[in-house]
Write a structure and sequence with these properties.
Helices cover 38% and strands 25% of the residues. By secondary structure, the protein is α/β, with parallel strands linked by helices. It has one domain: Nucleotidyltransferase, domain 5, CATH 3.30.420. The protein has a five-stranded mixed sheet with strand order 3-2-1-4-5.
């Protein structure tokens, strides 16, 4: 039986070197009671900072196993937080993402967030917030560590492909 008094806290950050360029994201997930904490990161060959910010939130939501627990998401990305808090993502969906950037990821976000009772909060980046700083370190390291994953949504939207042979 899940502990209904507990909640999941998610902290995310994204990074892209060059923007666009190699990118990565970092995630810190923990329970509010502090009994469980996990970190995740992933790097991509060529992407943008905004895509990494949003992809971090999506990946964190997908990792939640007990969807009965309330979730708090903390991000330093105004792009992500405001789009969700202000309902822009739902307006974009109603217009079939006609003028929205990163429609592939916003659709993925909507699917990943289904059935989850979440709230999202903006935190100022590079302001000594411990979890945000940890996410930033994870994201930057993932971007700098010769990332091998393609961001296919970015590549398809820009027409850029990885032309390496191996």
């Amino acid at each position: 039986m899940p502990d209904s008094t507990n909640k999941i806290l998610i902290y995310t950050d994204g990074s892209a070197i060059g923007n666009p360029g190699p990118g990565g994201y970092g995630i810190v997930m923990k329970t509010a009671d502090g009994k469980l904490k996990k970190t995740f990161s992933k790097g991509f060959k060529r992407t943008t900072n905004n895509r990494m910010e949003l992809m971090a939130v999506i990946d964190a939501l997908k990792k939640i196993k007990d969807k009965s627990l309330p979730v708090e998401i903390y991000s330093d990305s105004k792009y992500v937080v405001e789009a969700i808090k202000n309902g822009w993502v739902n307006k974009w969906r109603a217009k079939r993402f006609a003028k929205a950037k990163n429609p592939d990821l916003w659709l993925e976000f909507l699917k990943a967030s289904e059935g989850i009772d979440y709230k999202i909060f903006w935190v100022k980046g590079h302001n000594n917030h411990p979890e945000n700083e940890e996410c930033d370190r994870l994201a930057v390291k993932a971007a700098q560590n010769n990332p091998q994953y393609p961001d296919t949504g970015y590549e398809e939207s820009t027409g850029s492909k990885d032309n390496t042979l191996f």
